[in-house]
Design goal:
20% of the residues are buried. This protein has one helix and 17 strands. It starts with a strand and ends in a 19-residue tail after the last strand. Helices cover 2% and strands 45% of the residues. The strands form three sheets. Strands 9, 10, 11, 12, 13, 14, 15, 16 and 17 form a nine-stranded mixed sheet that branches. By secondary structure, it is mostly beta strands.
Amino acid sequence: TIYFWLSDLLLSTVVKTEQVRITVTGDKTKDEVKVTLQEKAATEGIFVASVPTRYGTTPIADGTLDVQGGEEVRAIYTPDFEGVNTQPVEDHTYVQAGVRGRLAIVQPDGTIIRNFNIGIPLYFRLEDPDLNRDPFVVESTNITVKTNTPEAPILVTLYEENANSPIFKGSISTQYGRNNNLTTQPPNHLPLVGGEIVTAIYEDALIDTGETNVEVSATCRANLIAWAPYTSKPLLIDGLD
């Protein structure tokens, strides 16, 4: 939400109005919203209002300002006093744009995993410069790990690899079984029986287009486990023992 504060004593002493309209526009999406400012209680010449914003690529006339990352937003007030030639007054601000995070499920050496055997740890690598807010502190963030089964998702904490880095790392253990078949569920363990698709999800608060709370994901699959048959009786294969 963008807030507006207009100070013009003539609106209370000459025109004697309790409200005034301004125009708010964006230079990329080309959306335009007419905003009505109301006089602040017990304060002459001060008018306030606000307008909600959202990410959008085309203007929609619904009272919400559609904007994109990097867009310049201008608020324009045009005084209208009879017999007085006054110029428009305006202010501007810019829509923040971030960096889209990149998430991968990897081996310890950084190689991306597509398939894995149950029992090995899964390592996660997230690169998002927006998370490096303090260059002198090792920061952390969370991702969610889930499978295509009714099992509950698991929250995994990733830590910055050093105090001034855009890369965050973490891991989770995997084990054979199901939650309801395990007597005790160790923390940060993912139970699997084979064939499941494992999905890691990071919710990026701000990406390059200006969109907020965008899901970034990576997937891999647990290998199916085959039972190895064995017999102590002689076998004939192609007529040979």
